[in-house]
Amino acid sequence: MNAISKKIMVITPLLSFQYFFICAQIYTHRFEAGINGGAFIYTGDLSRSDLGSYVTMRPQFGFHAAYLLNRSFSVRANFSFGSLRGDDSKYSTPAYRQQRNFKFTTPVTEFTGLLVWDIFRKNAVEQRRGFAPYIFTGAGISLLNIQRDYSRYNAEYFDAETTGAGLAADIAHRTPVSLPVIPVGAGLKYYISPKLAVQAETNYRIMSTDYLDGFSRSANPAKKDNYYSFSLGVVLALGYKDRNDCPPVRP
Predict the structure, then answer these.
(1) C-alpha closest to that of 104 among 119, 115, 89, 92
(2) Distance between CA atoms of residues 94 and 166, nearest Å
(3) How far apart are CA 201 and CA 191, in angstroms?
(4) Contact between 186 and 200 (Cβ < 8 Å)
């Protein structure tokens, strides 16, 4: 066996290994899209607890598009719409709720950008099945049209110098039409197939306003308003290509 033949015998397996290694690094897809539905839950001055007002939760719908950066991380653009509502009259305790009788409603149109961490590193891998938990955060904006209602307020029940004066200040304060939000949340995907998953997610929006419900000075100015959502949806891999489609290499 001459020197050239020996070199060929050494180089060919190396090239084959390199080829398969490169092929193995090819992602099955880079893009995903999803759709979801669930509920928006308001938390603030007109809710009974920090967990929010479940008796006034409203429907929420949304869709998203994601770009997979690597096995662990992706960036996601979210669009959500729905509404929020709060109503003192829904609570019999404390007693002042039935006398104050504040309420509000607003539609919500939300645009956010998220960085998502897939904890089990299942982004764009072949034959992915089972559960894949993830967490995320980001930033965005909510477009609002807040309608506050104090027409049922019982002025005789409250101190005019505190609650009454606070209500006058709130009425004079313009309600916001848009607010920045910082979404923070977690979710769980279940892969039915490598191309399709069902998804459950909760998403809490951190805000820096006390006028999401239209009231502050007449309620609790020390407590900020926020909202969050629960949703169920489906996620589809776009342009999926099985890496086993790589052509064979013959030694």
Answers:
(1) 89
(2) 19
(3) 15
(4) no
Q: What is the predicted pLDDT for the residue at 13?
A: 47
Rounded to an integer, what distance in angstroms lies between the CA atom of residue 52 and that of residue 54? Answer: 6
Domains in the chain with CATH codes: 28-243 (2.40.160.20)
Q: What is the pLDDT of residues 50-97, one digit of tens each?
A: 889 899 999 999 999 999 999 999 999 999 999 999 999 999 989 999
Q: Is 218 exposed, middle or buried (0-12, 13-18, 19+ CB in 10 A)?
A: buried
Q: What is the 8-class DSSP label of residue 85?
A: E
The answer to whether the beta carbons of residues 100 and 152 sit under 8 Å apart is: no
- pLDDT per residue as tens digits for the range 90-145: 999 899 999 999 999 999 999 999 999 999 998 877 667 899 999 999 999 999 99
pLDDT > 90? residue 10: no
